[in-house]
Amino acid sequence: MSRTKANPADLLPLPRWVKRPIGKASEIAKVQQTIKQRGIHTICEEGRCPNRGECYAQQTATFLLMGPVCTRACSFCQVSKGRPDALDPDEPQKVAESVEILGLKYVVLTSVARDDLTDQGAGWFVQVMEAIRRRNPATLIEVLTPDFRGDRACIKTVVDANPICYNHNIETVRRLSGPVRRGAKYDRSLAVLRAVKEFAPTTTTKSGLMLGHGETKAEVIEAMQDLLAIGCDRLTLGQYLQPSLEHRLVAKYWTPAEFDEMGAIARELGFKHVRSGPLVRSSYHAAEMV
Predict the structure, then answer these.
(1) Among 100, 98, 104, 184, which Cα is nearest to 140's?
(2) Which residue, 54, 65, 61, 63, is CA-closest to 105?
């Protein structure tokens, strides 16, 4: 899907609070070498996450399953869009081996959207989870899934594999969901999280928003209330950072003080655990949220 290229003159200056050191080169290199040798992917690398050095040092990583090409074209996302390749039958074992080599104690499994697959990749999540547990029985597994187009059977397939936490991000407020999340729907994402609680009431659920698309404080609070109404337990709030001139422009850089305020509001509303800050991402300090 084509994008409209942004005019550099329209870019907001990058504030100092969204700049941080990438981390120790040795820690990053070990992970990069391990995944490159096995032909697998992490969203940490594909999405150029600013926290990847810190997370690697804390023995956590987020694997990107089913290839690096997504069937959707969300206007905020760094991941490549287009026609994905066939699934690599060895990927579950490769991920499990990587978890063992890197000594990971907590793993997040996410994926590109695979609308081209019959089960949209739900069964693949399960295969990877099973492979990890065979080699690393003590490692905890969180999933961060696409919306599976609202297919409850797909959601149940993943829930029945007993992840420690089920994460699905609504990404933005209701008004902006269409232009920000092409192919996704705000209410459908809420329905995913609602279904998880219906299938497994004790499973921890989590969702997150990227602020800076043009939302208002009132709209963010409304989104929080929508999530709480369907039983969502945990919340992450982070700053949207434009990956390239071909992606959606940043409308506002929320300040650290504003993130602190929104985090406090989220806790007052009733979320059990909240991470709120400019560089917070879905899997940031994920193990501490469970």
Answers:
(1) 104
(2) 61
pLDDT, residue 1, reads 38
User: Residue 181 pLDDT > 80, yes or no?
Assistant: yes
- Interval 13-18 mean pLDDT: 84
Q: What is the mean pLDDT of residues 45-60?
A: 62
Is residue 10 in a domain?
no
Tell me if 100 is assigned to some domain: yes
**Domain housing 209:** 21-289
Give the burial string for 79-111 (b: 16+ CB within 10 Å, else e): bebeebeebeeebbbbbbbbbeebebebbbbbb
224 touches 265 (CB < 8 A): yes
Please state the domain count of the chain.
Answer: 1
When pLDDT is cut at 50, 70 and 90, the band that residue 190 belongs to is: very high
Assess if residue 255 is contained within a domain: yes
**Domain of residue 130, CATH code:** 3.20.20.70
**pLDDT in the model for residue 3:** 47
Q: Is the pLDDT of residue 239 over 90?
A: yes
In our burial notation (b when 16+ CB lie closer than 10 A, e otherwise), range 16-49 reads: ebbeeeebeeebbeebbebbeebebbbbbbbbeb
Handedness of CA 68, 39, 95, 115 (dihedral sign): positive
Higher-pLDDT residue of 243 and 56 is: 243
Ramachandran class of 211: left when φ > 0, alpha when ψ lies in -120 to 50, beta otherwise: beta
- Dihedral class, residue 26 (left if φ above 0, else alpha if ψ from -120 to 50, else beta): alpha
Positive or negative torsion for Cα 36, 38, 42, 47: positive
Within-domain flag for 54? yes
The residue type at 219 = E
